[in-house]
Amino acid sequence: MLLSHIPGMFTHPDAEWELIKKEHSNPSRIYMAYTCLLALIGPVCAYISTTQFGWRVGDGELIKLTAVSALQLNVLTYVAILVGVFGLGWMIDWMSKTYGSGHDEYAANGIALAAYSCTPLFLAGFISLYPVPWANMLVYLAAAAYTGYLIYDGLPHVLGIDKDQAFFFCGAILAVGLVYLVITRVGTVIVWNLGFAPVFISG
Questions:
Q1: Residue 161 and residue 155: Cα distance in Å, rounded?
Q2: In Å, how far are 66, 194, 202 from 85, measured between CA atoms?
Q3: At a CB cut-off of 8 Å and minimum separation 6, what does 52 contact?
Q4: Within its chain, how far is the Cα of 95 from the centroid?
Q5: Are the beta carbons of 200 and 65 closer than 8 angstroms?
């Protein structure tokens, strides 16, 4: 079962990457049995916290989202996560030829690297149940840092790239990730202007 890789990503990532390489699951299986499932954590937790718990800014009043608004925003967030993981995996496979790895006909290795490396970010979604901005920021920053490490650590194992090349390749992958982050920020503004802006309620 693909979810069995989760503990190994934190306890012994090198050995886990070797298992993933040998497993060579096709992209659709990785998506359905791993990415689609774990990507639900953040949006579901955010929906619960923003509609049931709410948050405060300083000493201000308690703020919540309406159920419909929260549902719309979290569905869009879920879609953005799935698109981001697929796009990053496809880019990893496409760029890998430049860094000395063979092209994978099904992009399974690239998508596997992207999906399993994002495990810390997926699990960080649980912090959304505690809707305090600074706590969420710290947890997601730590998760993003470990995700970057997992990408660097996984490149030699999954794509057969030597350590020196992996350092530069990892930088290129992270740059792609930052570009996608900017695109999602711009996309958020556009979507909000199309009528999907958050609808707040007090208390």
A1: 6
A2: 29, 25, 35
A3: 64
A4: 19
A5: yes
Whether the full predicted model's pTM is greater than 0.90, yes or no, is: yes
Q: What is the pLDDT of residues 88-124, one digit of tens each?
A: 998 998 888 888 776 666 667 888 999 999 999 999 9
Q: Which residues contact 198 (CB under 8 A, 6 or more apart)?
A: 65, 69, 70, 73, 192
Structure tokens at 184: 């999602």
Retrieve residue 171's tokens.
């930088």
Rounded Cα distance between 52 and 18, Å, is 42
Q: Does the structure show a pLDDT above 80 at 79?
A: yes
Strands (E), the chain: 63-65, 200-202
The 10s digit of each residue's pLDDT in 49-58 is 999 998 887 7
Question: Looking at this protein, which amino acid is placed at residue 10?
Answer: F
Two structure tokens written together for 149: 């490490």
Q: Which amino acid is at 81?
A: I
Tell me which amino acid residue 26 is. Answer: N
Residues 6+ apart with CB under 8 A from 39: 78, 81, 82, 85, 122
